[in-house]
Amino acid sequence: NFMLTQPHSVSESPGKTVTISCTRSSGNIAGNFVQWYQQRPGSSPTTLIYDNNQRPSGVPDRFSGSIDSSSNSASLTISGLKTEDEADYYCQSYQYGNRWVFGGGTKLTVL
Amino acid sequence: EVQLLESGGGLVQPGGSLRLSCAASGFIYSTYAMSWVRQAPGKGLEWVSGISNSGGSIYYGDSVKGRFTISRDNSKSTLYLQMNRLRAEDTAVYYCAKNGEGREWPFDYWGQGILVTVSS
Predict the structure, then answer these.
(1) Does A2 touch chain B (CB under 8 A)?
(2) Which of A38, A71, A81, B110 is most exposed, with the fewest beta carbons within 10 Å of its own?
(3) Residue of A nearest to B62 (CA)
(4) Do B120 and B14 meet the contact criterion of CB atoms below 8 Å apart?
């Protein structure tokens, strides 16, 4: 069994770029796809990135995903930050044995 | 437009039961796997259970195995979660989620969530 570890919080100014990491505790990060979800305050999650780096239709290209085998981690990068990007962000991956694992979530503050 | 509408939540005593429903529309329901994901107050997301498009494959998280039962009625485009022997730690917002394409069932659409409170 593996865990996905995210920073508890990050902050950045409007217009800047921020990267949120998601580190897999065991097994190869590239072995299973990583998804990213955004949850604005008081709202349900929405899907930002699936299959490591694919954006659903309607998600701006300011949002991008990647994986890095050297650090065994995935990253969500948000460029041109807007105040509306202030939210919680969760990474998620599939674990063999039919389990779906979420990271603990990262609170993004845009100040 | 995909819509997922949960219902059936509320306040229940420890040891009690509750059945959640999720009415789906805007897609061919019988084609996709579905899941339940929960979020305890102030906490992160936790996968609870998943079911294949036909209902032939069913999976549970360790914290609910043996107490919760997932099912679906493809004729009614509805997903269910029967929750028995409820505990205080089951208190959470429960989200119905549609699984997308691919063998790893990523979540692609989410309902608005329904609150379940387990308390005496």
Answers:
(1) no
(2) A71
(3) A99
(4) yes
What are the pLDDT digits (tens) for A20-34? 999 999 999 999 999
Q: Pairing state of beta strands A73-78 and A18-24?
A: antiparallel
Give the nearest partner residue to A98 out of B59, B95, B108, using CB atoms.
Answer: B59
With CA atoms as reference, report the closest residue to A52 among A40, A63, A39, A43.
Answer: A63
The pLDDT tens digits for A26-85 are 999 999 999 999 999 999 999 999 999 999 999 999 999 999 999 999 999 999 999 999
Cβ contact B94:B10 at 8 Å: no
Partner-chain contact A44 B113, CB within 8 Å:
yes
Average pLDDT along chain B: 97
- Distance (Å) from the alpha carbon of B103 to chain A's nearest alpha carbon: 10
For B31, counting Cβ atoms within 10 Å of its Cβ (0-12 exposed, 13-18 middle, 19+ buried), the class is exposed
pLDDT score recorded for residue B54: 95
User: Distance between CA atoms of A90 and B105, rounded to whole angstroms?
Assistant: 16
Instruction: For residue A65, give both structure tokens.
Output: 């995903």
* Mean pLDDT for the stretch of residues B36-63: 97
Question: How distant is the Cα of A80 from the closest Cα of chain B, in angstroms?
Answer: 24
